[in-house]
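User: Hello! I'm new to structural biology and keep hearing that structure can be predicted from sequence alone. Could you demonstrate with Ribosomal RNA large subunit methyltransferase G? Please show me the input and the output so I can see what each looks like.

Assistant: Of course. The first part below is the input, the amino acid sequence of Ribosomal RNA large subunit methyltransferase G. The second part is the output, the predicted structure written as tokens.
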Amino acid sequence: MPILETPFARLDLIRQPEQANEPLQAFDAADEYLLGHLYDQGLPANARVLILNDSFGALACSLAGHATVISSGDSHLAHLALTKNLQRNELWEGDVSFIPASEVAGGPFDVVLIRVPKTLALLEEQLIRLHGQLASGARVIAAAMIKHLPRAAGDLLEKYIGPVQASLAVKKARLLLATPVDKPAPTSPYPTRYRLDGPSLELLNHANLFCREGLDIGTRAFLPHLPKALGDLRVADLGCGNGVLGIVYALSNPQARLTLVDESYMAVQSAQQNWRAVHGDRQADIRAGDGLAEQPAGSLDLVLCNPPFHQQQVVGDFLAWRMFTQAKTALSKGGELWIVGNRHLGYHLKLKRLFGKAEQVAATPKFVILRAIKS
């Protein structure tokens, strides 16, 4: 694996989830550029540094021991990667504090380092939360690979922080240097809400939610075909997002015992609030996690899933395949995995290979709803 070498540290880093023969590295030129710039500008030993959206811990691990480091992001997998990479490089875990994006990191911060996220709404919410959290003379530096750096990212920095200067490009990476100025306290447009027609529900969505402004078309195709009146089954909504699949399933299955899990902290926060709004005090296990990795084997009867087809900017079905494998392990004999997927992804063949038995429940011109049974 490539080694990250900067003036701060020499690190052997891994991604999460781990894959055999991993084709991608856990850092990029934007991480290297950002760390090199920070070193050149000088970092006081007692500085409080906030790092936002550090995908696999490259920035936090590099600065561990050089400053007081607080890392915040919306990915449970990123948090897991940070923990593993601190251990892997024999760094003291106490040198870095992690704050989920569903919580507010308290300042004052002398330096804020930002990896520009794929979802600009998340960046906007993070910048809004920086109001009143910056120390006098604080530096705010955002970084990204140029192909993943929209102009709107600089506009948001200027709107919420202050004037922005773009760096020269280095190895196809760029920095955005924002100079903080006094601004009125901003009002966040998040969370947003939208309504479902059938069943009639209003759902809340925090900033980093996929399809935050309305129900995604895959889930829309899935909802009418959710199984009903199945009794007290143990059911998981895997990759739950705002919780819509689990919440709607629970309406038609009042005795079911629900687990809702997602790797996004803001998704879990949204699902928890939506569950309470619809089901009140009815018990459910709603948590952030690495899919069903922590679910005991054979402990579920049914898994519902609208699998993702990307991790950050990386597109592929490796996450979906991993979720299917986790579901098979977590299901009891005769248990079922129900999914919705784009027709062209060929999930039917993958599920048949994995489970031995898979069938189509329903279809639209774009999507298929599939059911796989654990033998």
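User: So the tokens describe the shape?

Assistant: Right, they're a compact way of writing down the 3D structure. Reading them back into a model, for example: The chain has a mean pLDDT of 94.
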